[in-house]
Design brief:
This protein has 23 helices and five strands. α3 packs across α5, α8 packs antiparallel against α9 and α19 runs antiparallel to α22. By secondary structure, it is mainly α. Helices cover about 60% and strands about 5% of the residues. It has a five-stranded mixed beta sheet. The longest helix is centred in the middle third of the chain and has 29 residues.
Length: about 500
């Protein structure tokens, strides 16, 4: 069974005028926005007339909160924690949601006296389902469906990335607003408004369990729903939740940030909050990675030669972060590169066995050291990282370390292996390149390929840079490099300093 993920989904339906697209779908990593209620039903294992006698409880809660019998309730057989409300007063709830609420009721009783004092199963179930329905009714009363439809119409002319960013931000704002509105709905009907925290506690617990997997953590900043910590802070304004939501943002910016301004903000947040958790390895690792990225920003492309992929897991929100410790003073080194080396070295022995991404990062950094011993060590570490986890990210960095240590053939095989089979075939057709009997085989699991699809253009670009650095520019080599550049741009490479760097180099070839 899948790990449960609470979404408070409010569904958005919007038809386009273009004949080529029958409907508009807004999708992100958490929501499924479906065209019609009927399609939403069909996406489940079926509609259940009743499930463990929950139907009458749900109808009773609707009566208590809105005194309206015009709401249709559908219980869907699905193994995910989810609810949904369609504009035509249709409320959907998954069987897994109902099971999880009941299973967690004992754990939640310590925080909510209503669960300690309810007289029977039916009353306890009402307490559990109240905040969920109140939140969905908040979307209903706020006209969020129509507001979001108008927002989509307002921004539909924007470029795709900018459009999604604005819609995503708007949806997150509406979720926070719905939490507060739900509190007022509960209070007006004589219920405890803090019951809205009940499902958030379930969400926080299940996400903490999910986030124990370093490589499969949740990035709330690409989700239409804010993190539980952000929602807790929005409701309670407790300083502890502010710390946690800021750490989530910092880790997101280190992992995904695309500008030096974002990186500076992340470093500032990490530095500030590290004082509260002086011995936490996760924060020390993030700080080392952040300074590594910052150092890369200060280095020229001619010095780096290739595009590195710096591994940074998202924030785990472990139990330790709910207990604050005595602040301490952070010591600052004068040299940025040496400081970054020191940050890695400080925790290397403690973290290396369980974090191949960290080892890969460190090997990259050591490769640029003026000390021969460090460069030799970088090669050992890069190979060790790839043995521990055969992923495209780590293989990319292994190729860079090979090349910068003078092992050109090994680097070529690494970059070649990193490319997808389709890209290898296209490169063969483009420049006649062939590398048979490649030894760096990846473990091709579906999840691995899906998660690392974003690195496709990096694999092609680094293979192209390798050609640029190793080929003597005779007439054949010039033609080959220009063909590789053309193929790279055919992938839809976005404007970046690396694209300009490659373009300028090739344009200088006569």
């Amino acid at each position: 069974m899948k790990a449960f993920l609470w979404t408070f989904t409010f569904l958005v339906i919007f038809s386009c005028d273009t004949s080529s697209h029958r409907s508009f779908y807004y999708l992100d990593q958490v929501d499924n926005v479906i065209l019609t209620a009927e399609e939403y039903k069909n996406n489940s294992k079926g509609v259940i007339v009743d499930y463990k006698n929950w139907q009458s409880v749900i109808h009773s809660v609707f009566q208590d909160l809105i005194n309206n019998t015009n709401f249709e309730v559908f219980i869907l057989r699905k193994d995910s924690f989810n609810v949904a409300f369609f504009p035509k007063n249709q409320f959907f709830i998954n069987t897994a949601t109902l099971d999880t609420l009941e299973n967690e009721s004992i754990n939640l009783a310590s925080s909510f006296s209503e669960l300690k004092t309810c007289k029977n199963l039916s009353e306890c179930r009402k307490v559990l389902i109240l905040p969920i329905i109140a939140h969905e009714l908040a979307h209903y009363f706020q006209d969020d469906y129509f507001l979001l439809k108008n927002k989509i119409e307002e921004h539909k002319h924007l470029p795709r990335d900018e459009f999604y960013e604005k819609i995503l931000l708007y949806k997150r704002e509406r979720e926070l607003s719905a939490d507060l509105y739900a509190q007022s709905i509960l209070a007006r009907n004589g219920k405890n408004p803090n019951l809205i925290l009940l499902p958030l506690k379930i969400l926080k617990k299940t996400n903490q369990e999910k986030n124990t997997d370093t490589f499969n953590r949740i990035d709330y900043y690409t989700s239409s729903h804010p993190s539980p910590n952000e929602r807790f802070y929005h409701i309670t304004e407790r300083e502890g939740y502010k710390t946690l939501k800021e750490l989530e943002l910092a880790f997101h910016l280190i992992a995904k940030g695309s500008s030096i301004e974002e990186l500076k903000l992340a470093i500032n947040l990490i530095e500030n909050h590290s004082k509260k958790f002086p011995n936490n390895l996760e924060l020390k690792r993030a700080k080392a990675t952040a300074y590594h990225r910052y150092w890369i920003y200060t280095s020229g492309m001619k010095d780096l030669k290739f595009i590195p992929i710096i591994d940074q897991p998202l924030f785990s929100d472990s139990e330790e972060f709910n207990t604050f410790k005595t602040p301490f003073e952070i010591q600052r080194d004068s040299k940025l590169y040496q400081k970054t080396i020191s940050l890695y070295e400080e925790i290397f022995e403690k973290i290396k066995d369980n974090d191949p991404g960290f080892i890969s990062n460190y090997s990259l950094l050591l490769t640029y050291s003026p000390l021969e011993a460090n460069r030799k060590r970088s090669l050992d570490l890069a190979i060790e990282a790839f043995k521990k986890k055969k992923s495209r990210k780590i293989l990319n960095n292994l190729g860079i370390v090979f090349f910068l240590n003078g092992k050109i053939f090994e680097a070529q095989k690494s970059f070649w292996s990193e490319m997808s089979e389709m890209d290898r075939e296209n490169v063969k057709k483009t420049i006649g390149e062939r590398l048979e009997n490649v030894s760096f085989q990846l473990e091709q699991t579906k999840g691995n390929v899906e998660q690392e699809e974003n690195y496709r253009s990096i694999a092609i670009s680094n293979f192209t840079f390798m050609k640029m650095y190793t080929k003597t520019l005779n007439p054949d080599a010039k033609s080959e490099l220009k063909k590789m550049q053309k193929y790279y741009f055919s992938l839809g490479a976005k404007p970046s300093p690396w694209v300009i760097y490659l373009n300028d180099y090739v344009n200088q070839i006569h």
